[in-house]
Amino acid sequence: MKPFVLLATRPEDDVALEEYHAVRRFGGLQESQLEHVRLEKGPVPPLELDRYSGIIVGGSPFNSSDPAEEKTATQRRAEEWISALLDEVVARDFPFLGACYGVGTLGTHQGAVVDRTRSEEVGPITVTVTAEGATDPLLSQLPGEFTAYVGHKEGTRSLPANAVLLASGTVCEVQMYRIKENLYATQFHPELDPQGLINRVIAYKDLGYFRPGDTQTVIDRVKDGPEVGQPKKILAAFVDRYAV
């Protein structure tokens, strides 16, 4: 089969590698079946889409809604690269799954309003599948409600005009949507299990997601929270549907 590609923008090597292994594990992919492209490392050649089964965009400490003058040169370069890629991805309706930072990049490209009015504290939330989501191939095997992990400074306040809402939440209503037939975005993290989230809490405790002094409280919220096992099925369904 053609490999999938994970586009990453996490500067921390340990966090970036853990994300890669989680996507690979939950997607049921061998190492040779998931390439890892780290956009924060430097200029990257354009992707040749015909080489891949699909694209997955992971999370990031970057925020799509940050004012341009506050973005680093690295962030601006990565976003310009992703925007150019999305021109072709959207035109071709090429299989795409953007999680966390991916929902901001796809949404911004397609005219969504992404801002800090829908920020979420770190931890588990209840996600509700819409009627359209219940019949979508990526969600059809999940229950009507499931628990997922979030933790974001920004969220989608209004959908792109051409998007179909597939799953909703409370603080950030837009939790998952589809554009055309093959372009997906999730606010929640399908690649996270409890230990994965705890590791990110520790890695990002000084980045403003919560007060550093509340780190143990956030960790306890994850440890003592409900089981989170359904979202990873979305990665498996994406791979099963688009592997060629």
TrEMBL record:
Claim: Glycosyltransferase is one of the keywords in the record: no
Span of domain Glutamine amidotransferase: 49-194
Cited Pfam families: GATase
UniProt keyword annotation of Ligase present: no
Swiss-Prot/TrEMBL keywords: Glutamine amidotransferase
PROSITE patterns from the UniProt entry: GATASE_TYPE_1 (PS51273)
PANTHER family recorded: GLUTAMINE AMIDOTRANSFERASE YLR126C-RELATED
Protein name: Glutamine amidotransferase
Organismal lineage: Bacteria, Bacillati, Actinomycetota, Actinomycetes, Micrococcales
